Amino acid sequence: MMHPLLVHPHLRLLLVLITQTSITVLSASSDDLSEATFFERRIRPLLLDHCQDCHGTLNEGMPHLPLLDSREAFVGDSALVVPGSPAESRLIQALENPTVLGNHPDWPKPMMSRQKQDLERWIEMGAPWPASSSEQRDANTDGNTSRPEGLHWSFRALVRPALPDVPDSFRIHNPIDRFVVQKLIQSDLSQADPAPSSTLIRRIYFDLLGLPPSPTMMRSWLDR
Predict the structure, then answer these.
(1) Which residues touch 101 (CB under 8 Å, ≥6 apart)?
(2) Where is mean pLDDT largest: 51-60, 67-76, 77-86?
(3) How many domains does the chain have?
(4) What is the pTM (predicted TM-score) of this model?
């Protein structure tokens, strides 16, 4: 029996298109990231995770390494980073032998091979450092080196904002409601009426399962 793909030429064409699309998506990896994006996604989080605790602004007993201030912290007479040459960069050498950096202790967190490759690639790119990184600041709650506004929110220190003061005429069930109401007021909008239980159940099902509840399940929940 002839294979279905040989019988239907359109299926063969579809298979080719899917394969080519998959290859294109896979090739759009870190190689396609811009220098600034590569730094913010791969390098800065790595430096924060492995270096900031000991070399932050307010830490004593360790050389100050202003990781978030400027490129000059790495590129200079120390040869910590030699743009274009990972092999000559003491930072790369120190990953295998921390004593390259003098009395530097062992790395508190082992660096994965992927992270080392990212560092090497960053240096091969010339150790680019986005200008906005040294111009924008976002203070940390612990007082350490400031972080740029452009840094992804997941890498910023947690800050508890003050609760907005909103009129008592709005329904407030928890602190988050205050922020929602504040935006409603700013947009000249009013609160919608409370959703009935059946609507809430449908929303939960769509959120968790992607499907509506069956009539039986709907009755089961409404009868509780």
Answers:
(1) 80, 90, 94
(2) 77-86
(3) 3
(4) 0.46
Place of tokens 């070399």: 55
* Residue 169 lies inside a defined structural domain of this protein: no
Sign of CA dihedral 25, 31, 34, 37: positive
Say if residue 129's pLDDT is above 90.
no
In a domain, 166, yes or no: no
Residues 26, 4 within the same domain: yes
**Nearest by Cα to 137 from 154, 122, 157:** 157
Same domain, 24 and 81: no
d(CA 96, CA 103): 14
Question: 97: pLDDT confidence band, cut at 50, 70 and 90?
Answer: confident
Phi then psi dihedrals of residue 138, to 5 deg: -145, 105
Domain limits at 7?
1-30
- Looking at the structure, tell me whether residues 143 and 213 fall in a common domain: no
In the numeric block, the tokens 């007021």 are attached to 185
Q: Say whether both 67 and 146 belong to one domain.
A: yes
Please tell me which residue, 32 or 190, carries the higher pLDDT value: 190
